[in-house]
C-alpha cells in the first residue's frame, strides 16, 4: 500500500523538522470531533505524530496558543515532546507516546498518577488566555443551529445555566495553566508517566474544571470524584473545596452536553422520539461498552439532566 498523499503544509513541516531524513510508516489517525488531520509516522525508527488543523477565523491566535501551551506542558513532563510548530500552517509535530487512553477504573494508584499529572500542569508557568468558555459555548450553539437547521441551536436551558455558573466561578477563570478538555481519550497512560494530548483548547483557566472534566467520564461515581479531588489537593477536601468542585462539575457537564448535542446534529440527528433522559451512569456504562450503538443525543440528554441536578445543588448552597 502506498503512503497517503501529504498536504503541502505537512510535507514542509516534516522537512523542516527532519531535514533530508526519510519518513516511513505514514499512517492516518482519527482526528475526533475536531476534524484535524493526524498522521503517525517514523523517522529512524522513532515514532511521531503530525497534526494539521484548518484555520479558525473566529480564533486566529489558536495555533500559536496551542503550541505555546503544549511546549510549556511538555517541559513539565505532562505532554509529548513538541518537535515542530508552524502557527501559520497550523501544523505541529510531537513524539508519539506508547500509551493507552484512560478508562474508568477503581485503581487508586492510577488515580493518584492522573491527579499528580494535573497538579504538575496547574503548578507550572502561566498559559496565554484564549476565548472564554462562554465564547466557546456560543460557537457550539452556532454550529448546532447551522447543522440542525431552522435556528435550532443548543437547549436554551443549557446556555442560560452555563452562563450563570460561569459568573459564580468567575474569580477562578484564569487561575492556572489548564488543558480545558480532560476527557479520557486525551489522557494517555504510559509505563513511566501520564500524558495529556490534544491541546487545542488549552489556555489559562480554572484548574477545578480540568479535574471536574476528568470526573465526568473516567470517575463517574461520587466516591471516585471525592478521591480524585483529595488526591489532586494532596489533603482532605474542605467544604469550600467541595462547593467549588460542584460548580466546576456542573460547568464540565454543560460543555460536554453541548459537544454531544453538536455531535447529534452532525452525525445522528435527534434521539429516538419519546425517549426520556436516562441517568448519566446508565448511559455512560452503555456508551463505554458500545459507543457506536449509543446515540449522541442520548448522551447529551443524560449530561444535561445531570447538569441540571448539579446546578440545582449549587443554587441551594450544597457543598
Automatic annotation (TrEMBL):
The Aminoglycoside phosphotransferase domain is annotated at 25-244
Report the SUPFAM superfamilies cross-referenced here.
Answer: Protein kinase-like (PK-like)
Any Pfam family matching the protein: APH
Q: Which InterPro entries match?
A: Aminoglycoside_PTrfase, CcrZ_PhaseVar_Mediator, Kinase-like_dom_sf
The record ties this protein, via PANTHER family, to:
CELL CYCLE REGULATOR CCRZ, PHOSPHOTRANSFERASE YTMP-RELATED
Name the chain's protein.
Aminoglycoside phosphotransferase domain-containing protein
Lineage from the top down? Answer: Bacteria, Pseudomonadati, Myxococcota, Polyangia, Polyangiales
Amino acid at each position: 500500500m502506498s503512503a497517503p498523499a501529504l498536504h503541502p503544509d505537512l510535507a514542509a513541516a516534516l522537512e523542516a523538522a527532519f531535514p533530508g531524513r526519510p519518513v516511513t510508516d505514514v499512517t492516518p489517525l482519527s482526528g475526533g470531533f475536531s476534524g484535524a488531520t493526524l498522521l503517525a509516522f517514523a523517522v529512524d525508527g522513532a515514532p511521531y505524530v503530525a497534526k494539521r488543523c484548518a484555520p479558525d477565523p473566529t480564533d486566529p491566535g489558536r495555533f500559536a496558543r496551542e503550541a505555546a501551551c503544549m511546549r510549556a506542558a511538555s517541559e513539565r513532563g505532562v505532554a509529548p515532546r513538541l518537535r515542530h510548530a508552524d502557527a501559520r500552517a497550523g501544523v505541529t509535530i510531537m513524539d508519539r507516546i506508547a500509551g493507552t487512553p484512560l478508562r474508568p477504573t477503581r485503581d487508586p494508584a492510577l488515580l493518584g498518577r492522573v491527579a499528580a499529572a494535573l497538579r504538575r500542569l496547574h503548578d507550572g508557568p502561566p498559559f496565554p488566555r484564549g476565548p472564554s468558555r462562554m465564547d466557546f459555548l456560543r460557537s457550539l450553539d452556532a454550529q448546532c443551529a447551522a447543522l440542525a437547521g431552522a435556528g435550532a441551536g443548543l437547549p436554551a436551558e443549557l446556555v442560560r445555566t452555563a452562563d450563570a455558573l460561569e459568573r459564580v466561578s468567575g474569580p477562578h477563570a484564569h487561575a492556572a495553566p489548564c488543558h480545558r478538555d480532560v476527557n479520557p481519550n486525551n489522557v494517555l497512560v504510559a509505563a513511566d508517566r501520564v500524558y495529556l494530548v490534544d491541546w487545542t483548547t488549552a489556555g489559562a483557566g480554572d484548574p477545578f474544571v480540568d479535574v471536574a472534566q476528568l470526573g465526568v467520564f473516567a470517575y463517574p461515581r461520587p466516591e471516585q470524584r471525592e478521591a480524585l479531588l483529595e488526591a489532586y489537593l494532596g489533603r482532605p477536601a474542605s467544604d469550600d473545596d467541595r462547593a467549588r468542585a460542584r460548580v466546576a462539575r456542573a460547568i464540565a457537564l454543560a460543555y460536554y452536553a453541548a459537544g454531544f448535542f453538536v455531535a447529534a446534529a452532525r452525525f445522528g440527528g435527534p434521539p429516538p422520539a419519546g425517549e426520556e433522559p436516562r441517568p448519566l451512569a446508565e448511559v455512560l456504562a452503555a456508551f463505554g461498552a458500545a459507543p457506536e450503538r449509543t446515540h449522541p443525543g442520548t448522551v447529551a440528554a443524560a449530561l444535561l439532566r445531570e447538569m441540571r441536578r448539579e446546578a440545582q445543588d449549587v443554587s441551594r448552597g450544597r457543598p
